[in-house]
Amino acid sequence: MERTFLAVKPDGVQRQLVGEIIRRYEAKGFKLVGLKLMQPTRELAEKHYGVHKERPFFAGLVEFITSGPVVAMVWEGDGVVASARKIIGATNPLTAEPGTIRGDYGANIGRNIIHGSDAIETAQTEIALWFTPEELVTWQPSI
Ligand code: CMP
């Protein structure tokens, strides 16, 4: 079954949007299989955003993502990678559609509330980076 990695960033946690964000994915019918609140280390952040390491915003991005608690999640479902990105909206909250998480709550491109894997392969890499296999729970809905 397809899985994706989502992380509520420090701005989303501080603005108390964790419940609202989880609600959107539950309402859509996706299954939560991994969840933890953690303050990422610099090493984890640099690996996670390694693809951006030559960009001018890299240092600020790592600084920000390590600045406070993050809610790391793994969600499961058909087409969850692309669908989760649609629910998140465009990277820049100023151009993200209203109704998306970033369109509704994001302040600017550096404070855009949530991260979501951009492809199935990226999701697999990010899940393995943030979670051990034992932290992921397999369960079947009973209703
Ligand atoms: P995210 O989806 O977490 O993936 C990479 C992040 O880099 C992105 O969200 C933005 O928060 C950040 N980002 C991308 N472009 C810029 C930019 N031009 N300036 C600052 N941050 C950026």
From TrEMBL:
Catalysed reaction equations from the record: a 2'-deoxyribonucleoside 5'-diphosphate + ATP = a 2'-deoxyribonucleoside 5'-triphosphate + ADP; a ribonucleoside 5'-diphosphate + ATP = a ribonucleoside 5'-triphosphate + ADP; dZDP + ATP = dZTP + ADP
Species classification: Bacteria, Bacillati, Cyanobacteriota, Cyanophyceae, Pseudanabaenales
Residue span(s) of domain Nucleoside diphosphate kinase-like: 1-138
Assembly: Homotetramer.
Binding site for ATP: 9, 57, 85, 91, 102, 112
Main location: cytoplasm
Gene: ndk
Gene3D superfamilies assigned to the protein according to its UniProt record, in alphabetical order: Nucleoside diphosphate kinase-like domain (3.30.70.141)
Keywords, ordered alphabetically: ATP-binding, Cytoplasm, Kinase, Magnesium, Metal-binding, Nucleotide metabolism, Nucleotide-binding, Phosphoprotein, Transferase
Location of the active site: 115
Function text: Major role in the synthesis of nucleoside triphosphates other than ATP. The ATP gamma phosphate is transferred to the NDP beta phosphate via a ping-pong mechanism, using a phosphorylated active-site intermediate. (Microbial infection) Catalyzes the phosphorylation of dZDP to dZTP, when the bacterium is infected by a phage that produces the substrate for the synthesis of dZTP (2- amino-2'-deoxyadenosine 5'-triphosphate), which is then used by the phage as a DNA polymerase substrate.
Assigned GO CC terms: cytoplasm
CC cofactor: Mg(2+)
Highest taxon above the source species: Bacteria
EC number(s) per entry: 2.7.4.6
SUPFAM superfamilies: Nucleoside diphosphate kinase, NDK
Single GO term (MF): ATP binding
Statement: the UniProt record of this protein carries the keyword Magnesium: yes
Similarity annotation: Belongs to the NDK family.
Protein name: Nucleoside diphosphate kinase
InterPro entries named among the record's database cross-references: NDK-like_dom, NDK-like_dom_sf, Nucleoside_diP_kinase, Nucleoside_diP_kinase_AS
Location in or out of the cell: Cytoplasm
Keyword Transport among record annotations: no
